[in-house]
């Protein structure tokens, strides 16, 4: 079934950047804008031009370089704002102006200190003024969900009469319930003169955790555009999350009867880029892109997933560009999950060996909560004759300084060739120094692509967990290390990921040798 197309309006660079601590440099905004265009969003709101010279310049440059997405110039219902937005977006191949003014009585009384008629006059005059320059005008009565129906209808009717083409009804403080928010769209469309001649947009905040639900309710009641941010970032608790609503629409397309034009395979990389640039780490349980979204520790779940992914997952993470690492080893894990993980290192254990490893694994998991790749490999090396892992990190030393480059030295055993060597490296930080010296031991062109650091407990002796992702030959490999020394945990995680890559490469080379030339 092909449903109607929902316009995805991304305001990460405007509303999202208003989150405390999320401020971006102009070059960072430009990079994110390029990625949003690659992601396939329909509209990009690149900032608030009047707010600063740097913001104006960033909006202007993004307007010039974006060719696929429409650009939205954001402005209060004030002439200087509108003029600034018009100038900043003048070179965009396609653009609209997005005007707003408060409409709720609490905003009028305590923020604007204006009467309803004064605000109505501002809205009418500025929409008419903007219409001289741009055909496509979006108008937002701010705090619409706390505005009485009578005044909301009057304001919407006035701006439609002056040429507004898109009416955005924002839940500015995340107050509405889905049935209330959907009903508001229904009422405006039915009772406002000209209300059936314009498009409607939903802009929802997440103060009660209802931003996605409210946006879906709006779609079900006639909205054809949703305003979103990457990772749901935004003021207070954030906005409707792009990845959540896009995947809700894709997963339940049969029930909703709509679709988007977002290229889902770029969701994960876009999420990671915004998270890094805005310095906003993602919660482990964040839907779609959170660390735990497609990971499973329960033995029952792991067994089902290994037999058929659909038993416990309603989406395929690969479709969103998310690296597959669904099995997390802990005290709830079962034999099937452990056997699966061991096979990733190229080892097939006899049942008696697996029994021994599983018994020791359970004892370790009960004692430490988490079982890192490094700890698992030690268990395996103690069980089998020889080494499972191609490389073993024997010793690591890091010298740090506040004024000089950091220096690292790593002693690594090459188990494939039965030799030990020591390598050294330098870097701006200790992690870079460690990775630089360890790369020298690995005989493959490994690319270090991502790293996550987490504290597993509190206090001075807290364990730190590092998750490192590397890339080799177009495939990502992820390793996890746990230690009181977080730099050592990073080294262990990097070593684990490299061991997986090398093991996979060894299997490929072995298969080629066995089959002979094509």
Automatic annotation (TrEMBL):
GO MF term list: 2-isopropylmalate synthase activity; metal ion binding
Claim: Hydrolase is one of the keywords in the record: no
Pfam families: HCS_D2, HMGL-like, LeuA_dimer
Catalytic class of the enzyme: transferase
Record's keyword annotation contains Transmembrane: no
One GO term (biological process): L-leucine biosynthetic process
Gene3D superfamilies reported in the protein's UniProt record: 1.10.238.260, 3.30.160.270, Aldolase class I
Signal peptide annotation: none
This protein's UniProt keywords: Acyltransferase, Amino-acid biosynthesis, Branched-chain amino acid biosynthesis, Leucine biosynthesis, Manganese, Metal-binding, Transferase
InterPro entries named among the record's database cross-references: 2-IPM_HCS-like, 2-isopropylmalate_synth_dimer, AIPM/Hcit_synth_CS, Aldolase_TIM, LeuA/HCS_post-cat, LeuA_allosteric_dom_sf, LeuA_bact_synth, PYR_CT
CDD domains listed in its UniProt record: DRE_TIM_IPMS
Enzyme Commission number(s) from the entry: 2.3.3.13
Family note: Belongs to the alpha-IPM synthase/homocitrate synthase family. LeuA type 1 subfamily.
NCBIfam families, per database record: leuA_bact, PRK00915.1-3
Protein name as annotated: 2-isopropylmalate synthase
Organism whose genome encodes this protein: Alicyclobacillus acidoterrestris (strain ATCC 49025 / DSM 3922 / CIP 106132 / NCIMB 13137 / GD3B)
Classification of source organism: Bacteria, Bacillati, Bacillota, Bacilli, Bacillales
